Amino acid sequence: MKVIKIAQVAKEPQTSQIFTGPVTAQTIVGTELSKNFYLRQVNFSRGVRNKFHIHTIEQILIVTKGKGIVATDKEEIVVGPGDVIFIPAGEKHWHGATKDATFSHIYVTSPEQKTTQLED
Q1: Is 18-110 assigned to CATH 2.60.40.740?
Q2: What is the pTM of this model?
Q3: Domain ranges across the chain
Q4: What is the rounded average pLDDT for all residues in the chain?
C-alpha cells in the first residue's frame, strides 16, 4: 500500500498545444506504480481549458477544486468539487476552468490510452 498526499506532489507546467493557457499537472499514480491506471491532477488557470479532443479509452474526471466546465458538441455543464464525470472512449469533448475561477480535476485512465486533438 502507498499513501500519496496530492498537496505534496510537484506541480509541473504543461506546454502541450491542447491547452489554451497556463496549466500545471501532478502525476499521482504513474506507470511506475500501476500497469492498469494512470491518475493525474490537472490545475487550470482562470478561463483556461483544453481543446476539443477524443480518447481511445474511457476517462474519468474527479473535480477537486474550483469551478469548471465539461463540454461536448451538444452541451456544456458547470461542475464543482465532488462531481465525477465519465467520458466514453471516442466522445468529442473538452474541459477546463470557468472565466471567473480556477479549476482542478483528477483524471483516471489507462496508460494505454491515446489522445487526439480535434481543434487548432
Answers
A1: no
A2: 0.94
A3: 18-110
A4: 97
